[in-house]
Design brief:
Length: about 210
Amino acid sequence: MKNLKKYILLLCILSSATILAQTSNSSIQEAANKGKTELLRILSERSDFKLGVSASDIDGSETGNPIEEFSTDFKKLLNNQAQDLLSISTRTEKFIVPLLKNGKVMTTITVASTPKSTKTVELVNRQYTSEINQMPRATYIKDLKLIQVPNLNAALYVTGNTVFTSYKGRNIQEPVSLSELTAELQSDARIFESKYGEKLRKGKLVR
């Protein structure tokens, strides 16, 4: 009887987690669609705005899989505390949602999620749009994550142990190993610290 109660309790916990995940994803999509509506309004009313995208581009587009954003702990990276960058990166509670039309990303909507609300915080990002369009089948990857590495200006699109990035002039179309790139970033972090660490702590660094 005790085992049965434990089994039922486990099922309830798993069901609750699934419902929460679905609600979270639906709220992200809902916020992205509100952002799309607002962007359409702006583009239709203000033709003088040069955002790199037109109302006709956005009209008829659909939201794609959200890309969750993470930020790396630079101190942990510097101290070689991980072989996997994701393990020393935390959620920013932001999601990049591509707007798709005819198999192409027209633009991206960035959504921020908090316990109280989920809302649009950015309507257009040319960098994300360009990079996602260059990555092979990026819009079909459901678990794609974006890791931002502070101080090194590295933006990494990660799925499993595979990374797509233009860091240090790389071709974003050619995937690299996350473990190998983590080692390179650790080395670059040490170089940054030796050159700029003291100035950064004193607030004198302008880059």
